[in-house]
Amino acid sequence: MRTKVIGYYNSKFGELWNKSLADLIDEAIAGVLQSVRLARADIDAVFFGNMLGGILENSLFNSALIAQIMETTVPVYRLEAACASGGLAFQTATNYLKSNKNKTVLVLGAEKMTDVSVERATEALTAASAAEEQIAGLTFPGLYAMMAQVYLHQYRYDEEHLAYISVKNHYHGSLNEKAQFRKTITVDKVLASPYVAYPLKILSSSAISDGAAALILTNDPVRVKSSRSAVDVLSSEVATDCLAIKNRDSLTELYATQVAAEKAFCEAKIKRNRIDVAEVHDCFSIAEILAMEDIGFWKRGEGGKKAKEMSTQLGTNQRLVVNTSGGLKAAGHPVGATGVKQIGELFLQLTKQAKSRLVKNAHFALAHNVGGAGGMAVVSILAV
To answer: What's this model's pTM, rounded to 2 decimal places?
Structure first.
């Protein structure tokens, strides 16, 4: 039987100073189990995405913490792939279910980032970059800023083209009750915000966030039959590229995304034009443009033009709507939870539970989750 997603829950994303990492994990587990009317004893394995627990909280062995919270002895696997930790947890869970019949598993992603200073959180995130980049003082805004500079110069775009990505995703985020930022913004406001690293502005960048998200996956026909809603996992593929961006052939392409996307579409046996809704990794505005080109939704070099046309915004009568959750930019980016949230948003869309941000008549959906500056990419395709 094909693997299905039958349940989803996420906490609010944002500055959740009154909640610990354990609190967020507990909330997500309880919420998703309640949504599918299952007990903790019904779970056969847990796949947990988390990047920074060992660095920011000196709490690396969170697998045992989850077992403690769930009062279980089932296997709990912790996956770490920088900002792709949640996506890798999902992809690993799908592989587990391919090898084990009639099983039901929990996929969980969580991160606690705002209890430390911005400087400390930024330093922790650089652990996902190459040593020579760290020595040079490059943070991820700096790395993506270099990609943006090359892209804008190569294709003769400017900062305004980048700004439209943020405007679109903030509009979508305003419709998401769990989003960190629920206010719409304008292009002028984006352009007036301070630089983080030229040409990227504060409003071109995702924020430091807390949050947790959880999914229930199963290949058990009994569980599927009793579920209120179910979505097929057509494919989930991962590719890994070199760590240092100086070793790459191009700064305007993420090769890991291209490989993972090609594998995912081949496994799913559908064409790109069948995708109705997508969640792509927009840690910075340039990242969404590169993703749309690397996945094959847009032709190489046309991303700035397409962004300015707002061609993937809800309500524009376009074929493909992107980042209905608000993306990382507006929904928030608790790094371990992001990849799980992306799948969850698509589950809500395909099961018609996305309320005011619903993409009508959506049948196929794609999630794209990136680790670091493109060192890993996970692409998953879902369908109803």
So the answer is: 0.97
Q: Taking Cα atoms as reference points, which of 25, 4, 9, 11 lies closest to residue 233?
A: 4
Q: Which of 83, 161, 172, 283 is catalytic?
A: 83
Q: Where are the chain's structural domains?
A: 4-116+209-231, 130-202+232-383
Residues 260, 378: contact at Cβ < 8 Å? yes
Known catalytic membership, residue 83: yes
Backbone angles phi, psi at 382, to 5 degrees: -120, 160
The position carrying tokens 């291209």 is 258
- Give residue 296's identity as a one-letter amino acid code: G
283 assigned to active site: no
Q: Which fold has domain 130-202+232-383?
A: Peroxisomal Thiolase; Chain A, domain 1 (3.40.47)
Give pLDDT, residue 213: 98
From 170, 172, 281, 333, active-site residue: 333
Ramachandran region, residue 317 (left: φ > 0; alpha: ψ -120 to 50; beta: rest)? left
Four-way CATH pick for 4-116+209-231: 1.10.4200.10, 3.40.50.2300, 3.40.50.300, 3.40.47.10: 3.40.47.10
Question: 51-90, pLDDT tens digit by residue?
Answer: 999 999 998 999 999 999 999 999 999 999 999 999 999 9
